[in-house]
């Protein structure tokens, strides 16, 4: 049956608006005429789902499948998962749920979801379809939905997945905020130094030219530094780029990359921020996976894949192997190198294993690590501001003093 909206008039009731259901337009017009109404306008009400140009889409190019996640954005994927969860919990069939969410999503997400819906309609399993059509969801989300497909709790797994993605996105933003501020300060300092060396100081040198014999030591030092930077300054600009490129390339080799990431964890101040973020991420991810009913072995594999730090990845691999051999997770953690980076987890895991609520213990450790991360970020921000004043103020003050001492020496002829 189709739905039609109409505007009609009659002698007794005047103009009216309404809707009716009929097999087709001719039947709808017949119904209105039978009611002794004069049809002014009648249109069919189309479903927003079937109106989508991608409603019948079944295939996409490989590049789109690979890059769609970056083009869509984590927040939109989280919203789609939450919408799917709400609709499935409300009793909407899974095919209709995917089609409805797809119809109101953006270009790339809509195409992905319609492909999933059409694959489901052809008889494929949800997990296999997600791996094929939406690999950008990652092993963790697909693994959680696979567990939900097995036990009939897909709606809950969608909620857990959305929560996990949201927390990972928030964590990434916090770490970027903590690290971007120092980098911004460093770049601002370099820009100020370059401006002074290439614009301000040459004019000072020109003014003081011909008086080099009477320049005081501090002014002569300024002139020598300026001359050196003007001649060799590009080395100082190129070297950081070469160093970063070299580190990125070396990090691709697992052994060297693991040492680089371990060294980053040992850095003063910034290393503690990286430790707190990694601890929060692996504890919360593993806790949510265990809470959702996933077995500890695949849960640890998914958690390992969620981490960017190669040192943490290596240690979690070793912990997983010990758990596979029958050792408790708390014991495996206690003998690993991670023990000194997160000693609280050991005690909480022992309590969790004794009470059968290991997921709760891990989530509590994650909350503690998150609070620690917030303190580290706040401390880093507060520490950078005075450092900026000291460095930039020292440079400007040195130039100011050197210039006026040179000016005084030139004016007195001494």
Please explain how this structure is put together.
This protein has 414 residues and is mainly alpha-helical. Among the domains are: 2-45; 62-168, Up-down Bundle (Receptor-associated Protein); 274-374, Up-down Bundle (Receptor-associated Protein), CATH 1.20.81. The protein is 75% helix and 6% strand. The protein is built from 17 helices and 3 strands. It has helices at residues 25-34, 48-51, 62-72, 74-89, 94-103, 107-121, 126-133, 138-151, 154-207, 217-251, 254-265, 270-291, 296-306, 310-324, 329-334, 343-355, 358-412, and strands at 2-10, 14-22, 38-44. It has a 3-stranded antiparallel sheet. Strand 1 (2-10) and strand 2 form a beta hairpin. Helix 13 (296-306) packs antiparallel against helix 14.
Q: Kindly state the percentage of residues in helix.
A: over 70%
Number of helices: 17
Measure the end-to-end span: 103 Å
User: What does the largest sheet look like?
Assistant: 3 strands, antiparallel
Per DSSP, what share of the residues sits in E-state strands of 2 or more residues?
Answer: 5-15%
CATH topology of the domain at 62-168: Receptor-associated Protein
- CATH class (first level) name of the domain at 62-168: Mainly Alpha
CATH architecture identity of the domain at 62-168: Up-down Bundle
Global outline: flat
């Amino acid at each position: 049956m189709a739905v039609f909206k109409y505007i009609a008039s009659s002698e007794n009731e005047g103009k009216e608006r309404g809707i009716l259901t009929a097999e087709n337009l001719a039947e709808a017009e017949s119904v209105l005429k039978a009611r002794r109404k004069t049809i002014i306008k009648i249109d069919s009400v189309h479903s927003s789902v079937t109106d989508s140009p991608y409603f019948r889409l079944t295939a996409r190019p490989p590049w789109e499948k690979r890059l769609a996640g970056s083009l869509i954005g984590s927040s939109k994927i989280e919203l789609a998962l939450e919408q799917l969860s709400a609709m499935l919990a409300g009793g909407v069939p899974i095919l209709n749920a995917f089609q409805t969410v797809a119809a109101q999503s953006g270009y790339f997400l809509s195409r992905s979801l319609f492909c999933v819906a059409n694959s489901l309609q052809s008889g494929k399993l949800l997990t296999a379809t997600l791996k094929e059509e939406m690999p950008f969801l990652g092993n963790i989300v697909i693994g959680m939905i696979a567990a939900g497909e097995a036990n009939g709790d897909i709606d809950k797994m969608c909620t857990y997945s959305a929560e996990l993605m949201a927390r990972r996105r928030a964590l990434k933003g916090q770490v970027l905020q903590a690290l971007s501020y120092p980098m911004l300060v460093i770049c601002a300092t370099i820009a100020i130094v370059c401006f002074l060396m290439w614009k301000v100081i040459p004019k000072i040198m020109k003014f003081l030219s011909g008086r080099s014999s009477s320049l005081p030591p501090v002014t002569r030092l300024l002139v020598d530094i300026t001359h050196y930077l003007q001649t060799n300054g590009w080395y100082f600009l190129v070297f950081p780029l070469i160093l970063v490129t070299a580190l990125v390339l070396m990090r691709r080799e697992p052994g060297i990359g693991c040492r680089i990431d371990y060294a980053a964890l040992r850095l003063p101040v910034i290393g503690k921020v990286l430790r707190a973020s990694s601890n929060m991420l692996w504890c919360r991810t593993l806790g949510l996976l265990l809470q959702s009913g996933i077995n500890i072995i695949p849960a640890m594999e998914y958690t390992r894949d969620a981490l960017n730090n190669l040192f943490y990845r290596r240690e979690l691999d070793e912990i997983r192997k010990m758990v596979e051999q029958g050792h408790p997770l708390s014991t495996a953690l206690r003998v690993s190198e991670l023990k000194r980076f997160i000693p609280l987890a050991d005690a909480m895991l022992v309590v969790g294993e004794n009470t059968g609520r290991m997921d709760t213990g891990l989530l509590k450790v994650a909350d503690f690590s998150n609070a620690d991360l917030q303190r580290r970020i706040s401390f880093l921000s507060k520490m950078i501001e005075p450092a900026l004043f000291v460095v930039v103020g020292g440079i400007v003050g040195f130039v100011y003093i050197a210039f006026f001492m040179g000016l005084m020496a030139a004016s007195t002829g001494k």
